Amino acid sequence: MRTVELNIIKPDIFSESDVSGSEIWLKNICFNKENTYLIFSESGKGKSSLFDFIYCRRSDYSGEILFDGKNAKTLNHAQKKELRSSHISLVFQGFRLFEELTAIENVEIKNRLTNHKTKRQIEELFEQMGISAKINTPLSLLSFGQKQRVAIIRSLCQPFDFLLLDETFSHLDETNYTIACTLIANEVKSQNAALLVASLGETYKFNYNYKIQL
Amino acid sequence: MLMWKLLRKNLSIPQLAGYVFAGFIGLSIILFGIQFYADTKPLYSSNDSFLKPDFLVINKKVSTLSNFSLISNTFSEKDVDDIKQQPFVKKIGFFTSSKFGIRASVSSSTFRRFYTEMFFESVPDDFIDVQNENWTWSDEHSNIPIIIPRTYLTLYNFGFAQSQGLPQVSENLVEKIKLTVTAYGNGKSKNFDAHIAGFSDKLNTILVPESFLKWANVEYGSENEKTSMPSRILVEIYNLSDPLIAKYFGEKNYEIADYRGNTGKAAYFLRLVIITVLVIGLIITLLAVSLMLLSISLLIYKNREKLENMILLGYSRSTVAKPYQILGLLLTVCIFALAFVIVLILRNFYIAKISVLFDNANIASSLIFTFSSGFAILSVICLINALWIRKKVNETAK
Fold this sequence. Notes:
The complex is a heterodimer of chains A (214) and B (398).
Chain A: E1 3-11, E2 28-32, E3 36-40, H1 47-54, E4 61-67, E5 70-71, H2 77-86, E6 88-91, H3 103-114, H4 119-128, H5 144-156, E7 162-166, H6 174-190, E8 194-199, E9 210-213
Parallel strand pairs in A: 3-8, 3-9, 6-7, 7-8
Antiparallel strand pairs in A: 1-2, 1-4, 4-5
Helix pairs in contact in A: 3-5
Chain B: H1 2-7, H2 13-39, H3 41-45, E1 55-60, H4 64-67, H5 77-85, E2 89-94, E3 96-97, E4 101-106, E5 114-118, E6 121-122, E7 144-149, H6 150-164, H7 171-176, E8 179-185, E9 188-200, H8 210-220, E10 232-237, H9 243-251, E11 254-256, H10 261-302, H11 304-313, H12 317-357, H13 360-396
Parallel strand pairs in B: 7-9
Antiparallel strand pairs in B: 1-10, 1-11, 2-10, 3-6, 4-5, 4-8, 8-9
Helix pairs in contact in B: 2-10, 2-12, 2-13, 10-13, 12-13
């Protein structure tokens, strides 16, 4: 997949005045592979909604989202499964991790879909992120920041053309998010993928091609 | 394994145990009912394979007066002509009796040698199913087929054999016994080979082919035996449900032989009981299945967030539904196995009695029948279960 095109989309819950001044809502915009985008706005402007729309989790919007020209609303279950396991990776704001599983099991349950990384590579990611001691700890015993790092690792364990980060570094200190950014940037580069970072204004350690106000 | 670890969360062991228990009870009852029906089936289906179905045996009612010969209990020629005139009568036939001495003897490894004086009767071949090739007698050297009343065998098995410590025998076994019939009279005697060719509920007499009896009556019959009028008549009927039949014979004070008698009523009630048992078993099974469906719905509802997350990670709906479907399948197979074992155990309690009376071959095949019925029920339950789970997963994760 090379492009994600947004054609005059707007969440149903927003009125037209709600989205005035936005460079995305009710505009035409195209995200291309190999570019890095910062999408910033204050809270409540619909960053998570936008990512949910692109990830095909929700479809309560007007306008159309096109993947290489194909309308997102027309995808069937099998195509959505393919989209999520091989083309778009998303780090959810709420993580959507499984409390019953250990940290590494949470990553493996994603990785086994495509066997993108070896067990060794996953363990290295845990090491680089500084949570190798927690690798076999049940997720319910991890801190918020640790969970955030597990979610990041999980998002890297699949092939993708677009990586979406939804306020992913909110609970990490500068040292930790710098490490995380490096790992993410390397993976994005090696996969020739696009990176979309949603933030409240913070830019973190990425080199953006575009900064877009939502 | 990872998926199972995740999705087994909120699994209620008591609920599933409840399903297994209730399903086990229900399915056991159904399978036992089917098995019992199959094992006792000869009771309902035994019929006079040699005799045509649509005829009646009638006789005059025997009263005290007839003992003193004030009223004859034989049919006069006028009576016979009158019956022939009736619109529902297709044709009538008479019994031919043997007019010579007969002695039948048996010798085999199973039985002590014994012999008995007896008599034969015959009816016109029109009343016998002539397509049956076993019912023929051509010359002095051929084997004589004999039809005896089924009640004789019952009498032997349950009365005589049990009290005398003799073995009980099945109909098939009896048909294999070689008999020797000695006909004597007229200063001559001769031995014939004979065998039991069938059993009859309708005719309380010992039947041989008419051709044999006619020949033997001439050969050995005493000259001075005079031809008397018959006391019993065979009447072939166009339509057995014709209401005129009962009306006419009632007016004439004739009796129609009640050929099914108490056996027929007992079989009817037995069948009724089995059907009732099957319905109860079916209801219990249905309740058990609803319990499982409800339990799995609840499980899926409680785990809906996990299911949605799995699907958002890129798992397909069928993959997510599979662990639950396999769970349902395993439990149901478990129930089926338990129920089948218990049916086999229960069956041992009555089978010894039954196998004496019926064919061993029938019993072997009827076990397969029960197994396949159980398997069919199992498949239906698993199919319902699988579709239901798929539906619930689809409802849970949009």
